[in-house]
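Deliverable D2.4 — example input (structure tokens):
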């Protein structure tokens, strides 16, 4: 098991990663039960969800609680099912397909509405709140965002004033964009005590006097997801409801978001699959120029690209989820309690959490957009599911930290780990610099082993990252955090590498288990992923180099980038058609 971010400098083997085809029978049964709930309780009410039926969302959440779906990751001692981390990711995946409104309510409750108490609560707090949250008797929400505090979460103005007898805090302030606010019983609220540097977290009950709600927000999508402002006017909160200790609110918020990021990536997966399935069926049924539009190359290209990107986020999400799960298990075996092991287990892979969040949110946006395009004019109509899918998808790039923030976090966390000595980035980066001054080694191109060529190019992409990131860090030193354009380009390169490696290793593992013929479509999808990533890395790397170099240094770095991003030749049209033809033949997403 490699450490968080170590994929940049360590080449993993396919046997070292988890792929979704390896879920146990028990996990598959739970996934099947979740899908049955979606098909029975959610799918038939698509129109009601689009007509702002908030009560429907609340009622369906209660039903999910009765089935145990709200307590998947909550320990059995607190009324939950106590399932491993990657199982909770799987359930988020299967919940996502029906509609964005319910998926958002589910994610807000089971994630940021419950996890802060699970991970930071003392024994009394866990015993009081977790059983009711796990069963759906009480619903939870998370109150962090304020009118003046969005991405800058620690700048919130909500105040908490300790009473003279020190038995209570009086909370006063305003929160906005609060999912589940309309029917929540528990509010996880962040406020500042006096002039503390960092905010503090409080567990606030709906019955505490002084809480008022704004009207339901009118949003682009998620029509039946309750989203309101919450106002606190001298709300009296017992001192024992401080969560995690004074001044630890920012840490709680950030760690909750790490978990939320990987869960969000899962929470778009089935939405992507369903959009692809619907698009494929429509393209087989829609006749133009005397034939189904699925016969046309332009449509096949769209279907294939949608499938490739969905295969990739599925591969990355479950790879990262399993790394987190194994790390939690390792820490528990070493004697760490469940709370701390869970926190440290996720925190170690915060880089990967941000990577999959960006990948997932941009993939669901891409798929829904192309889905509308395949439907043509009908895609723009509320009579078809594409219009709602498109609107619901847009928020994913803003949730859990905007994608721009997450991109900057990716590089920032890598550099921070390097500075702490937790990740040896500079050593390999120096070796790459030395390599630039030498004659390129002759490579034996006669290796016919599956993915031998792809893995060589993957190694070169990692060198391209080390070269550009190393030079940028050397040039800007501590000021690099201000160079947002550079950080975003470097992050794009890191995301591409993690995506490619995950896709390739998954396909390779499938071949080892079932043979090459059975995995030929996954092989082709992996090759297409790498092909696109090389082009993307070349462009991003060039922008980084041109932004701060000149003269001989610039020339050498550009030559190095060219060395690391050239020579991968495939027939993308042929591979895309192979993938699209399989979708069209099966008339569904089948990978």
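Example output (designed residues):
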């Amino acid at each position: 098991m490699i450490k968080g971010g170590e994929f940049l400098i360590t080449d993993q083997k396919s046997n070292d990663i988890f792929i979704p085809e390896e879920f146990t029978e028990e996990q598959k049964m739970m996934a099947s039960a979740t899908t049955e709930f979606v098909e029975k309780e959610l799918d038939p009410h698509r129109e009601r969800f689009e007509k702002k039926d908030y009560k429907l969302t609340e009622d369906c959440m209660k039903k999910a609680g009765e089935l145990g779906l709200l307590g998947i990751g909550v320990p059995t001692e607190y009324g939950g099912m106590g399932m491993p981390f990657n199982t909770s990711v799987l359930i988020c995946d299967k919940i996502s397909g029906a509609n964005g409104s319910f998926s958002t309510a589910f994610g807000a409750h089971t994630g940021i509405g419950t996890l802060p108490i699970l991970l930071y609560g003392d024994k009394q707090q866990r015993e009081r709140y977790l059983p009711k949250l796990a069963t759906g008797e009480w619903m939870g929400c998370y109150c962090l965002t304020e009118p003046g505090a969005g991405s800058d979460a620690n700048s919130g103005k909500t105040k908490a004033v300790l009473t003279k007898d020190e038995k209570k805090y009086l909370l006063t302030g305003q929160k906005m964009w609060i999912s589940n606010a309309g029917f929540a019983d528990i509010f996880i609220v962040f406020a500042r005590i006096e002039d503390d540097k960092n905010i503090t977290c409080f567990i606030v009950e709906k019955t505490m006097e002084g809480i008022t709600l704004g009207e339901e927000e009118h949003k682009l999508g998620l029509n039946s997801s309750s989203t309101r402002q919450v106002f606190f006017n001298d709300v009296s909160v017992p001192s024992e409801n401080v969560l995690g200790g004074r001044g630890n609110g920012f840490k709680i918020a950030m760690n909750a978001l790490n978990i939320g990021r990987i869960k969000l990536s899962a929470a778009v997966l089935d939405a992507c699959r369903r959009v692809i399935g619907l698009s494929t069926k429509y393209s087989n049924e829609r006749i133009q120029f005397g034939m189904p539009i699925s016969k046309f190359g332009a449509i096949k290209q769209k279907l294939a690209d949608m499938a490739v990107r969905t295969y990739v986020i599925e591969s990355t999400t479950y790879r990262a989820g399993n790394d987190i799960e194994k790390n939690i298990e390792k820490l528990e075996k070493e004697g760490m309690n469940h709370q701390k092991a869970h926190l440290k287990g996720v925190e170690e892979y915060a880089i990967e959490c941000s990577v999959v969040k960006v990948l997932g949110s941009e993939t669901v946006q891409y798929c829904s957009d192309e889905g509308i395009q395949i439907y043509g004019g009908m895609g723009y109509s509320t009579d078809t599911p594409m219009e709602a899918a498109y609107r619901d998808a847009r928020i994913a790039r803003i949730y859990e930290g905007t994608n721009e923030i997450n991109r900057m976090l990716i590089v920032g966390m890598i550099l921070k780990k390097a500075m702490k000595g937790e990740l040896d980035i500079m050593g390999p980066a120096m070796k790459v610099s030395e390599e630039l001054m030498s004659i390129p080694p002759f490579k034996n191109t006669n290796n016919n082993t599956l993915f031998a060529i792809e893995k060589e190019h993957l190694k070169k992409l990692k060198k391209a990252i080390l070269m550009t990131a190393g030079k940028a860090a050397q040039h800007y030193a501590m000021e690099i955090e201000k160079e947002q354009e550079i950080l975003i380009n470097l992050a794009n390169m890191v995301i591409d590498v993690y995506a490619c490696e995950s896709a390739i290793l998954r396909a390779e593992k499938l071949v080892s288990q079932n043979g090459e013929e059975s995995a030929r479509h996954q092989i082709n999808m992996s090759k297409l992923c790498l092909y696109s990533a090389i082009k993307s890395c070349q462009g991003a790397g060039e922008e980084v180099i041109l932004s701060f170099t000149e003269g001989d240094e610039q020339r050498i770095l550009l030559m190095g980038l060219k060395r690391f991003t050239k020579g991968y030749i495939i027939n993308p049209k042929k591979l895309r058609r192979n993938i699209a033809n399989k979708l069209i033949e099966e008339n569904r997403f089948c990978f």
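The first strand starts at residue 140 and ends at 143.
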